[in-house]
Amino acid sequence: MIADVLADATTRMDRAVEAAKEDFATVRTGRANPQLFQRLLVDYYGTPTPLQQLASLANPEARTLIVTPYDKSALKAIEDAIREMPNLGANPTNDGTLVRITMPELTQERRKEFVKLVRTKGEDAKVRLRGIRRQIKDDLDALRDEVGEDDIVRGEKELDALTKAHVDKIDEALKHKEAELLEV
Fold first, then answer.
1. Between 177 and which of 24, 40, 161, 184 could a Cys-Cys bridge form, CB atoms 3.0 to 4.6 Å apart?
2. Tell me: the pLDDT tens digits for 140-169?
3. Is 79 within 8 Å of 92 (Cβ atoms)?
4. If you ran DSSP here, which 8-state letter would residue 41 be given?
5. Phi and psi (nearest 5°) for 100?
6. What's the rounded mean pLDDT across residues 101-119?
7. DSSP secondary structure letter of residue 71
8. What confidence tier does 172 reach under pLDDT thresholds 50, 70, 90?
9. Residues 2-34: tens digit of each pLDDT
10. DSSP calls for 80-113
11. 171-181 b/e (C-beta count within 10 Å ≥ 16 → b)
12. CA atoms of 15 and 21, how far apart (whole Å)
């Protein structure tokens, strides 16, 4: 039973780490990256629709992205959604068949702001991990009547090691993203 609870903890913590990495990917660096638009929703006929369902994204140059919509009538909506996207700072241009996005060069001040933003996202991810840890610890405490005290203590130690390993993964991803942001 304890093994099942710990397996559940591992699965949930792995998902939290992946969500944190995806969240880090939405913060732009000096390069254009299609993952920046991973969570962008476009108002398509009154329905918020993910950009990946409406268009293909190409990255022909380091600071340029080309968005080619599958339906040309969505071109204006895609352009507006990109323009309204926070923390992007790019002005998309529409030539009638595709949207071209040229990313401006990041200033040192803007890079530092993005580092702060990524650190905040990292702390939020760690809080999610600790929340999962707390829930799993409660699940272990609920098993106290069914299994021995020694097994519960052993399970809690394994849970702490698991939590630390996942926090370290988030720290590593955070360190990698900070280095990417500060790279000129």
1. 24
2. 888 888 888 888 899 999 999 999 999 999
3. yes
4. E
5. -105, 130
6. 85
7. S
8. very high
9. 889 899 999 999 999 999 998 888 777 767 778
10. HHHHT-TT-----EE-SS-EEEEPPPPPHHHHHH
11. eebbeebbebb
12. 10
The helix (run of H) or strand (run of E) holding residue 116 is helix 108-142
**Residue 101 burial (C-beta neighbours within 10 Å; 0-12, 13-18, 19+):** buried
Angle at 35 between CA 170 and CA 121, to 5 degrees: 35
Separation CA 43–CA 9 (nearest Å): 37
Note the pTM of the prediction, 2 decimals.
0.71
Please give the span between the terminal C-alpha atoms of the chain, in angstroms, as a whole number. 51
Residues with Cβ within 8 Å of 148's Cβ and at least 6 positions away in sequence, in order, are none
Residue owning tokens 């990256």: 33
Q: What is residue 148's predicted lDDT score, i.e. its pLDDT?
A: 84
Q: What backbone torsions phi and psi does residue 122 show, to the nearest 5 degrees?
A: -65, -45
Structure tokens at 167: 């926090």
